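Colleagues,

For the teaching module next term, I've prepared a clean inverse folding example: a structure given as tokens, and then the sequence designed for it. I'd like students to try predicting residues themselves before seeing the answer, so please don't circulate the second half yet.
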């Protein structure tokens, strides 16, 4: 099957079916719901809910086609051996990583708050990458997973736009992946940071990658079915 052209900035993105993974970054209860890590940092977590529906629409489109899906979780081992003190001790949060909160210990694997929100819960066979850093390539098997499946293109959704999404896109770009961010499927506690991040990604001829609207992506995928 030939590449699917997606209207995008700074110019159309050519999506190669079968070689393009959907990467859903950190759509976890700890960031999206009250009582989690995001709230402990003093953020208005209600702003992130807007990304869940669009991310679900992408997830359904990928699942319908049997294309690869990767979920990430920012998370730490229960003994916090993979959490640098600099990360845990930064700032003056109400609760720190590993402290008990209403959804269990913050950002600790196996705790309810660390799980992906129910609307986007991974299915058996979908890859889940637990990442101790902001970028999904740092200290994880992500690169090996992508290489094993012959994946060359990554379509991104998730939170937060300027932190873990942008960091991962930059890591991926440096490793040679062609990256597209779906605008409605990403969110930030700071809407101005989301806008600035998207502007940075597409500037200078797509120095980090591409950005496209949700309907542009879904419309192009649907259109490609009738072209089959
Ligand atoms: C943050 C993330 N913002 N997933 N994590 O600490 O963006």
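(Answer key — instructors only)
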């Amino acid at each position: 099957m030939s590449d699917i052209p997606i209207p995008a900035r700074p110019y159309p993105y050519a999506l190669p079916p079968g070689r393009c993974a959907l990467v859903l970054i950190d759509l976890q209860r700890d960031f999206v719901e009250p009582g989690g890590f995001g709230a402990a940092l003093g953020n208005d977590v209600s702003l992130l809910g807007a990304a869940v529906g669009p991310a679900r629409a992408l997830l359904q489109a990928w699942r319908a086609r049997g294309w690869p899906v990767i979920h990430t979780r920012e998370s730490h081992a229960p003994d916090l051996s993979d959490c640098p003190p600099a990360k845990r001790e930064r700032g003056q949060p109400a609760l720190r990583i590993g402290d008990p909160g209403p959804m269990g210990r913050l950002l600790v694997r196996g705790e309810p708050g660390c799980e992906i929100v129910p609307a986007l819960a991974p299915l058996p066979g979908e890859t889940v990458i637990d990442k101790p850093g902001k970028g999904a390539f740092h200290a994880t098997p992500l690169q090996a997973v992508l290489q094993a499946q012959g994946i060359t293109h990554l379509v991104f959704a998730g939170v937060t736009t300027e932190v873990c999404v942008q960091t991962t896109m930059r890591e991926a770009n440096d490793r040679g992946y062609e990256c597209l961010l779906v605008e409605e499927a990403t969110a930030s506690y700071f809407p101005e940071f989301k806008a600035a991040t998207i502007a940075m990604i597409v500037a200078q001829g797509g120095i980090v990658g591409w950005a496209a609207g949700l309907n542009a992506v879904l419309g192009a995928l649907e259109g490609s079915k009738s072209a089959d």
